[in-house]
Amino acid sequence: MLHWRSVMSTTPPVPAGHVVRFGIFEANLSLGELRKNGAKIRLQEQPFQVLAVLLERPGEIVTREDLRTRLWNAETFVDFDHSLNTAINKLRDALDDSAANPRFVETLAKRGYRFIAPIHTNAHPEQATIVPVPLLSSPVHPPLRPNDLPDVHRALPRTLFALLQIMYLVFYVLALIHWDEVWIAVGRNFGPLRAETISNLVFLTAAVGIPLRLYLLSGVSFDHARLGEKFRRLFPAVLVLDLLWACAPFLILHQIGIGGAIAAMAALLYVPFAERTLIRMAYSAG
Are 135 and 2 in contact (CB under 8 A)? Predict the structure, then answer.
């Protein structure tokens, strides 16, 4: 069995002054520019520096510690994990890449990152060298678990997730605004003995749900790098809250009928699991 470093050492490093092409992209490492089909893409300095380090060692694992040493001064006091996660997310956005099904930047859990696409390097237009990504004949580490999520741009799942948070905010606010009508509807559909209990439950869950949805909405709007991790911790509470509100259509039973209430409840029962999938698509590990 070959050791990883002995196999990776067969890949020549990319000189820092070269122009590197991969797919429809071109990175000028000396000018700090990234182009797509010849058109310049706006990419901040830090994400580009991460790309440059990965391109210098194509096919090799670049650990998070390697990146910290190269790009963050030891005297700079920053939240390194957050800064690196943000830089990786912005880089993937620029490359239309996905952590779930990467074409360029692969995440290796608890190890680092690797640039996996073949690259073409040249210092002058008339010179070109193809640097293939080497393959391990016998991997030292077990392969990563295949991800069954579709390969889409991160903006789509983030937008859909934000819309779901807005939907719930509308539910909560309308319930509180029309509190008297909620009380009457509960009494009509469930009887006066249960009206107080159910109405209080609606009030409490709406009061708790509003700050929760605002937190999630702000997190996905500002693309918080750790939102995936935080949502996984919050998911049990989100699930309970969403399951309770899945019964809300029965509050307007006299308006939509039993069939409409059941259909609406079935759709709402699916929503928390859709939220979890959207977060996984947008904020995969690393």
Answer: no
